């Protein structure tokens, strides 16, 4: 399931808590999935790493959160991005947040920059702590407001709450009162953290349990490991939970959101470039450098592109006329076989392929006809239309749906075809994640985009993944939100 539903009956949950809960889900910390059963001791530093979370209402995954903690010369940088989609008292709430906090060695707040969007309304608040006051600037609705919030001692960001006890004393019975900055309400709140003692998570992992009163009338229980990594956070006795997850398990969920270009992840996955590509539809070739690349991923060739390593975490991709066409190895039989959600042997798929290819002997022309028909037949939506057979009937779906239906039709017509994904340039925006196909015509693979009816696909198509299964999509989580693109050359 993509997105989710969050519903609470009015008698059980005060309305003013609902909006706060959305922000609450964004203030989550990183996790470690391998936990030691050794006694919990004071830690000198927060966990320096990147961690991923899945956010759930009951058993439905409704969002995700990624946080990275890194060391600076005089403290730490805490960066995070998260999105949730809920339904509160009959109406939908979509929320996303991108946040950066610079903190001291003791986790006290020094400066911050928080961007958040709730139901399409965006705002940005930034500022720094100076001599007992938090000086901030709030940009929202085209207006900018500056204000100061006074505090005594130190003020802390929300993501530091779970780590704080382990950097002091996490013995059972200990409690701490902290001043915490709330970027949604633009307030400094007094929060009490109580250490309840060692207690395994519901999944049986050794942990220490703490509780805080960040949200009035709502119990907020947290299980952390001996290094200060959050394993599980439970709001309102498990109604809403945030669980540490292996990125590989979360990868297909995040990947599907990105490929569907859902609002929940749109800004996170969009790769902006400066300056923008001029008249991308007239391009004949493109060369780019991608930095922030995961070197463990394969470099996919063919389909009109050439990829080369350009140093650690960097690759160069050339497309279009910059790539010399060479014969490819003969395709495997699997590219003619039916597969899950690509039912090339289904009666209706076979019949439609025969109808479209009737009287056409040239394979390239068959591919062109199938791609153009798919683009016209399916209404482009952000929601996945399901399998090839389902979308043939419903006539709607996103780019993945287009690629599945086209692939099924092409295989039914006897043309080896595979499902691929990567990036494509959207004029005026940047590069977004996208799915299309490649068909084997003559002696090589040709890029085909059945969403836009293109053969060959325009040169801004940068192939990164092959395959339509969840495990094929999972690697996207290792690069999404990290990579940057520099245009090296354009040809027209």
Describe the structure.
- The protein has 492 residues and is of the alpha+beta class.
- It has 8 helices and 25 strands.
- Strand 21 and strand 22 form a beta hairpin.
- The longest helix has 15 residues.
- The two termini are 42 Å apart.
Q: Strands of the biggest beta sheet: in what spatial order?
A: 8-7-6-5-4-3-2-1-15-14-13-12-11-10-9
Structural class, from helix and strand content? alpha+beta
Number of strands: 25
Q: Please state the average pLDDT score.
A: 85
Shape descriptor reads: elongated
Described by strand count, sense and barrel closure, the largest sheet is: 15 strands, mixed
Helix content: 10-25%
Radius of gyration: 25 Å
Q: How is the topology of this model organized?
A:
Blueprint: H1 15-26, E1 50-57, E2 60-71, E3 75-88, E4 91-104, E5 109-118, E6 121-130, E7 133-140, E8 143-150, E9 155-157, E10 175-182, E11 187-198, E12 208-212, E13 220-224, E14 230-235, E15 240-244, H2 247-259, H3 263-269, E16 285-291, E17 305-309, E18 314-320, H4 347-357, H5 363-377, E19 379-380, H6 388-394, E20 396-397, H7 399-412, E21 417-426, E22 430-441, E23 444-448, E24 462-466, H8 470-473, E25 484-491
Parallel strand pairs: 9-10, 19-20
Antiparallel strand pairs: 1-2, 1-15, 2-3, 3-4, 4-5, 5-6, 6-7, 7-8, 10-11, 11-12, 12-13, 13-14, 14-15, 16-18, 16-25, 17-18, 21-22, 21-24, 22-23
Helix pairs in contact: 4-7, 5-7, 6-7
